């Protein structure tokens, strides 16, 4: 604890997009104090040089990543780093008594073989990894409360799993028919320069990528399989869309009972998410837009049934950087600390 009795938190990867969301959310959180901001190429710079619009509030410098220093200062550490780094840092932080919330894929997988096959990184932290909990509170709330290491889900898996979970958990669909068509804004690719994310490449254009091989496929399949208690394969196609933030994931599956109508499904979804403050099931015939979720930790879910094809179509909209990343990590922190799950998390964005 800090002198003010607030919980001391650090952000490693503070210069990135996940990092800057965390800086905003945690600065406004009533129970925490940011005591460390860390980076790699940005180390030594004033945070306000990286994000001048925050200069009036954040006077910290970005510090180099020194795990002893971080552990001596922080009770809780957020890792917002490229895949393959958290698994080097987290074990040492956990050993030194920190709670760790990782935004990358390193602690999302129950099988490290699967992780290595998709992320091409060998792992030697099996013992620590086996203690990690998948940080989707709507599914694993109780396990998160008792964990010190959270592998926060990716943005596409968050949107897609919130849409699919009630259907799979309650055996309402044929899992082999699941198709996920998802679109992400360019901030999903992070702040580091990439050609496909340039305005000149991404603007006025829409295209799929990673077709039949995106690394979020095994992550979604792992959770679907856990819910179904059997092996589930999904068809997942991500698209890059010319907007800054937001994900719309539209999922399709064949209903086991073709007699189910939209109203039945809405009732089922409302019951499934009755204790989940951030999931909003939309009424009959209302379909979500990413703009509604922008800047909030909400997931808006719209449901339709097509009696001609016997399929259900579920649309899920989130802010990829909040419910899909930093907000979700703060939601998990609230659970770990025994605070209200929605403490300090935005439920209303600005519109339009
Ligand atoms: N963007 C999104 O929508 C989502 C991203 N994620 C995941 O969250 C993590 C962070 O993503 P995002 O914030 O977008 O990434 P960014 O590219 O915006 O930021 C990456 C951060 O990692 C730091 N970093 C890069 N290389 C190293 C290194 N070798 N050693 C130490 N630090 C390093 C950078 O520091 P510096 O700038 O100082 O070099 C920077 O702070 C990733 O794993 C990503 O996959 C998860 C869900 C959604
Ligand atoms: C638009 C875009 O590039 N999006 C990223 C998703 C970011 C993310 O959630 O990835 P992690 O699993 O690493 O956390 C991608 O498709 O790789």
UniProtKB/TrEMBL annotation:
It comes from the Bacteria. CDD domains: AGPR_1_C (cd23934), AGPR_1_N (cd17895). Residues 8-147 form the Semialdehyde dehydrogenase NAD-binding domain. It is found in: Cytoplasm. Belongs to the NAGSA dehydrogenase family. Type 1 subfamily. It comes from Cyanobacterium stanieri (strain ATCC 29140 / PCC 7202). It catalyses: N-acetyl-L-glutamate 5-semialdehyde + phosphate + NADP(+) = N-acetyl-L-glutamyl 5-phosphate + NADPH + H(+). GO terms for cellular component: cytoplasm. This is N-acetyl-gamma-glutamyl-phosphate reductase. Pathway: Amino-acid biosynthesis; L-arginine biosynthesis; N(2)-acetyl-L-ornithine from L-glutamate: step 3/4. Keywords: Amino-acid biosynthesis, Arginine biosynthesis, Cytoplasm, NADP, Oxidoreductase. InterPro entries: AGPR, AGPR_AS, AGPR_dimerisation_dom, AGPR_type-1, NAD(P)-bd_dom_sf, Semialdehyde_DH_NAD-bd. Its EC number is 1.2.1.38. PROSITE patterns: ARGC.
């Amino acid at each position: 604890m800090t002198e003010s009795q607030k919980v001391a938190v650090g952000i490693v990867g503070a210069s990135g997009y996940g990092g800057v969301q965390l800086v905003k959310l945690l600065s406004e959180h009533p129970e925490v104090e940011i005591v460390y901001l860390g980076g790699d190429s940005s180390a030594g710079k004033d945070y306000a040089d990286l994000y001048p619009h925050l200069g009036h509030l954040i006077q910290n410098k970005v510090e180099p990543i020194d795990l002893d220093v971080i552990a001596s200062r922080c009770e809780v550490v957020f890792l917002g780093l490229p895949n393959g780094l958290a698994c080097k840092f987290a074990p040492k932080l956990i050993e030194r008594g920190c709670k760790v919330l990782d935004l990358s894929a390193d602690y999302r997988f129950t099988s490290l073989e699967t992780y290595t096959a998709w992320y091409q990184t060998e792992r030697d932290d099996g013992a620590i990894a086996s203690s990690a909990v998948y940080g989707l509170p709507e599914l694993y709330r109780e396990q998160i409360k008792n964990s010190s290491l959270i592998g926060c889900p990716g943005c596409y898996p968050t949107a897609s799993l919130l849409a699919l979970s009630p259907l799979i958990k309650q055996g309402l669909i044929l899992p082999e028919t699941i198709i996920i068509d998802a679109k992400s804004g360019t901030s999903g690719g992070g702040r580091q320069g990439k050609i496909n994310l340039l305005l000149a490449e991404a603007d006025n254009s829409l295209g799929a990528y990673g077709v039949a091989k995106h690394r979020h496929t095994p992550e979604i399949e792992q959770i679907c399989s856990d819910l179904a208690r059997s092996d589930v394969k999904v068809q997942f196609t991500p698209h890059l869309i010319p907007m800054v933030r937001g994900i719309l994931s539209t999922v399709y599956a064949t209903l086991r009972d073709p007699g189910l109508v939209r109203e039945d499904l809405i009732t089922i979804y409302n019951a499934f998410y009755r204790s989940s403050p951030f999931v909003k099931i939309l009424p009959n015939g209302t379909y979500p837009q990413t703009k509604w979720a922008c800047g909030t930790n909400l997931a808006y879910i719209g449901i339709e049934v097509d009696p001609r094809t016997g399929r259900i179509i579920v649309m899920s909209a989130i802010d990829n950087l909040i419910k899909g990343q930093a907000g979700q990590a703060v939601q998990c922190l609230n659970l770990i600390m025994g605070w209200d799950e929605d403490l300090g998390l935005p439920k209303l964005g600005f519109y339009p």
